[in-house]
Amino acid sequence: MPIQKSDADEEKEELDICFVGREIDMLNEPDDLKKHKDEGQWDFVAFPLTKLPPCLEQDGKDLPSEYDLAPSTDYFRQSDQKDRAGEDVGVVSSWISTDSNRVSEEFKNYSADALREETDLAAFWGTYACILPTPDSIDCDRYAAAVNEVLRTQSTQQCRLWLRIPFTVDPQHFDGGLGPQVPAASPPSSPAPPAAAAAAESRHPMEDVPAPANGAAAASASFSNLSDEDNEKERRRVLEQGCTSEDTYDGWHIFKKVKDKCGNPQHLFVALVLTKKLPPFAYLDRWRSERVAAVIIPLECFVENSHGCPQLPYPHTQVVHHFLRQKAKVLLQIAVAPSKDVRNFERYRYCIQKLWDEIKKLNVVERAGHRDQNCLQPPLQPLAENLESGVYSVFETDSVKYARYREALKLALEAKVEERTGQKGPLVLMVVGAGRGPLVTACILAIKEVKMRTEDVKLVAIEKNPNAVITLTDKKQMEANCPFWSKLEIISSDMRQNVNLEKQADIMVSELLGSFGDNELSPECLDGAQRLLKEDGVSIPHRSVSYACPVSSTKLWTEAKKLGEKFLETPLVVYIHSAYFPAVQGAQPVFTFEHYPNKDIDPSNAHNRRHTDVDFTITIDAVVHGIAGFFSADLYGSVAISIVKETYSTDMASWWPIFFPIKGPIFVEKGDKITFSIWRCDDKHYVWYEWLLTHEGKSTDRHNKGGRGHKMGK
Amino acid sequence: MPIQKSDADEEKEELDICFVGREIDMLNEPDDLKKHKDEGQWDFVAFPLTKLPPCLEQDGKDLPSEYDLAPSTDYFRQSDQKDRAGEDVGVVSSWISTDSNRVSEEFKNYSADALREETDLAAFWGTYACILPTPDSIDCDRYAAAVNEVLRTQSTQQCRLWLRIPFTVDPQHFDGGLGPQVPAASPPSSPAPPAAAAAAESRHPMEDVPAPANGAAAASASFSNLSDEDNEKERRRVLEQGCTSEDTYDGWHIFKKVKDKCGNPQHLFVALVLTKKLPPFAYLDRWRSERVAAVIIPLECFVENSHGCPQLPYPHTQVVHHFLRQKAKVLLQIAVAPSKDVRNFERYRYCIQKLWDEIKKLNVVERAGHRDQNCLQPPLQPLAENLESGVYSVFETDSVKYARYREALKLALEAKVEERTGQKGPLVLMVVGAGRGPLVTACILAIKEVKMRTEDVKLVAIEKNPNAVITLTDKKQMEANCPFWSKLEIISSDMRQNVNLEKQADIMVSELLGSFGDNELSPECLDGAQRLLKEDGVSIPHRSVSYACPVSSTKLWTEAKKLGEKFLETPLVVYIHSAYFPAVQGAQPVFTFEHYPNKDIDPSNAHNRRHTDVDFTITIDAVVHGIAGFFSADLYGSVAISIVKETYSTDMASWWPIFFPIKGPIFVEKGDKITFSIWRCDDKHYVWYEWLLTHEGKSTDRHNKGGRGHKMGK
């Protein structure tokens, strides 16, 4: 009975489903599986694929030459309800030890055989996924070879492989954590395990996540509820710590090793194990980039509340919450209670249900983001292609954006009225790129607020999309009772073409901005409209600035690649969820465009070409998949709109960020410098960006050369 | 309220939905749209996008220089329920005449403008689709140019373009069918319209489809319920008729013209108009290949039944039934009745509902085909990759196949028992590639039927997939009460490898066949197993033959291309629905493989290489997209299994046909010869097909050279 979520608003939306399962240690009888499933109404169970081989029941000394697989159950017969088959998850034996120095060569081979054969069995049964044991060494060559062999021989309908990886590996797992049944290599490897463990402990200080500080906005952007300033401090603190890539107990490095050795295959995921103590937030954050298919919560992570009920500590809930939103499954690692009290399970399950319920409470923008997460789309080209009515309709619902415009217009009108004292004739207020009229509405509201009379102001709307003009004209007719609407002059034309106007504008207002500021060609459009603005006229907005920061996201990069190689040279608009930003500096300014009356526009457009290099310092070992882009725009006075995280206009929903992918992800180490170089190029018909990244003196190809991946039609 | 269909069996299946809409001639008021929608509970309406321009209300003589679009409604405001927006269909003005010689140059330009602007309006409103008028000439350059312009400037979110194409165009539409408002060119073009119409009538004899003959099986394969023999006669008759590609009134040629001129764009579909009289079935059949998004049924197609209720003639229902299964929408062209009796509409809607209900009555195989239609998949490679339990499980449900095997086994056992009279020791019956055991079950049933005793027979099963062996062993244990099961010898090995057997087999039975017979490498496997068969032993099957015939299917070809260029060089398994077979000969044999005891197998495998050329004669102008492949296999005596249409084993569900695409579709004319050349190649590790088509002395590339698209691992 999966927990289903239907959205609060009226629109149909795909149901999101949260799957909560339980991991079973051992099946005593083949028939146990069904019983376990029914207990506590789990959506799925993770069950051991095989029985412990007889040779390991004792000391494991007399290994047979071949692994003799003994299935724990007849899964296919067990899952009699056919539509349930394929939800459950098979667990490969935990005694498997393929690479540790502590075990014999013979046992390593035996283990690698077992890993392959058990995974094959899960694929044969068609389980939804198969959980592989945590590699027992950072040098996991044999482990990766076995995984590769499985991936090579399985048919395309194979099940997913979930690597069980804890945030931080218990040093004992590598050094001395072998079960009694696993034979140690003789002679045992030299350094005493406790010492190694102690050393590891000091190299990688485990600690609780800092206590929450302020606000839910930050929470949605990071596991840590720190303010942005604190976040930067925290990033710097992590950077200055002694931990380096030699940090062999960090789960992320282990996962990366296996992934790299296997060539980053499509079917390989993480089943991320929560630890009682969580690592510093930069270490947590880094998992946002990976394909986390499941979060495994061991019993020890739960605490008791005042009623004696289990609950997760707040930092843990933050982590689970993030991955739930990313559609990961939750797997509770809870042994059968001695009393076999079913309600006992239900209380744990309820903890996750409560978390899921919170997702329903997301506000409109967060919900839209939840829906659109990681969904890539090439930027709109409203200049080259006419927008659809439905697109206008979505944009028009952004009350935050238009409230800011109204505020800016009010201030501008007040200033202009004072400035024009004594001058004759109405003030000319011109909306360029009026669409279906939302800025006209904002203008009229501002005019009313400053109490101007009909004869004080002449309102003009210019729009190039003939069908939007039809709707705008229709709206004018419907609003005939409003004197400002009824006197509105509608001009159906491109603002850059010859427009016959009696008067130039005192105030020109536009909303031509894209996710990266100028990427919908506001500079070119507004240049073309400058002759319609008086010499002392005001442009709203008068400045736009684009921002960038390095981003790590296996998900976004993989999705872009899936679209085709070309899309790795295309800026893509996306609500970035499965990602994190591994730079100390956060988002840095890239290009600035100023819009003031300027009669001497260079027809060659040379003044709109740009080139910038932006430097970043990396906080933590990471893989950089590209650059995330944002913008802010100054409307008038101190009124601005922004999608840059640090200055974000809360609840503004019109823009998601932009993602500039790079063709090959780059592995960067803590403290490395990385430079983002970007060019804004143009020819007679198009404008496009070219970009590259430089790391340790080595540059990537220059991406999107000549606009081969993507260009914007003028 | 779309008619929903949930499947009769227990498995979850995607809901199929049948959409029935009504076309509205004219909106008197903008508000009429909602009223029309509610009438008769239509799933959608097709409504005119614009009002008749004032200049055309009279004689259309004073055309303005530009088309002045006047929307018929404010669609976006009308569709207040947001989730309904996007279901309706906008209709572009029917007076548009872009290419006919009968209208003035000025009017042609005016028409082309209107076509573009109205389509833009539909895209702006975001209607589900937009119906374009039937081109008014077979030389429709200007029409295609306007469509191209629309496709070029629309954003990617544009609506679909549905070309309204009748099976046969009324000659008046080209020659004299202009409305009173459309100005004729002066001087009018020379030949008198009625004469032209009469000439057309004689060139393309309209006639009713021949009366149904026998059975529903043929119906699902063709619009005509003729027997296959009759079908071939009918194909020959069409071929011998005088109609040629000069047949300018054939709707298919017109659609092809527009499609070709526009480069076959993704967003272009047919809205196929039923005519009261239907053309010969080869003309109907040809539409199976095209992307028919909707079937438009004019009122005149309906007849009255004895209760005075409207119903469709049987041939018409066959056509609608086919396209319903192909997920086309149905659009009824029914004017508002003078009485405005809502129930009147409901009666027409009910006709379609009844047809849809019949789809629910499909048998298991037909339902599986309905679900899988046009869904392409690379062939299974059970030799190179181990199959999943779920795949075995699906195959095992094919009762028809195993009944045939049982019958063949029974006959073979009887013959062997007689032959061996006096010989000592049990008869050895060997299943090679036993999987989870369905052929073992068939063997045991046959043994019981011929009343052999346990000591008379030794049953051996060889299987290479270790996980299938686990299930088979498990089954043996469960069937311990059956003496044949409990004495079964299970050998976990590849049949080609050294198997230690006391005795050779008297009968060897296998089911290693693929959709194209030998494509799962049964020849190579059975060669390897020959040494396990006595010199006078029997192989079941003892022969397999592959078959091929040219196929026309825009749908299959487009889907293959979508998967990637490589897939145009890959044989693909598919239930072929949206297709037809334009060759007189039907399916012709390609490769034959015989399986008799043969101790002297050439280790080079040269004897399994093949090359064949197969000739076909084309019945009707068509576009060939590739070759469809089938197989038949002789099991024993006269017992055979077949997926060749002419000899199809009714209700056998294990195999869909195979599709060999070609990289570029070929236009062929009635009476043309076309030759399919195919090679079966191999190297040390792989077997693969290479193929090409030769038409009028010109050959395509040799496809899949060296197995670059697809090869089967030995």
Automatic annotation (TrEMBL), chains A, B:
Domain called PRMT5 TIM barrel: residue spans: 82-334
> Which residues act catalytically here?
511, 520
Where does this protein hold S-adenosyl-L-methionine? 392, 401-402, 463, 494-495
GO annotation (BP), single: regulation of DNA-templated transcription
Q: Which Gene3D superfamilies does the entry link to?
A: Divalent-metal-dependent TIM barrel enzymes, Hnrnp arginine n-methyltransferase1, Vaccinia Virus protein VP39
Which keywords belong to this entry? Answer: Methyltransferase, S-adenosyl-L-methionine, Transferase
What is the name attached to this protein's record?
Answer: Protein arginine N-methyltransferase
Q: Which organism is it from?
A: Chromera velia CCMP2878
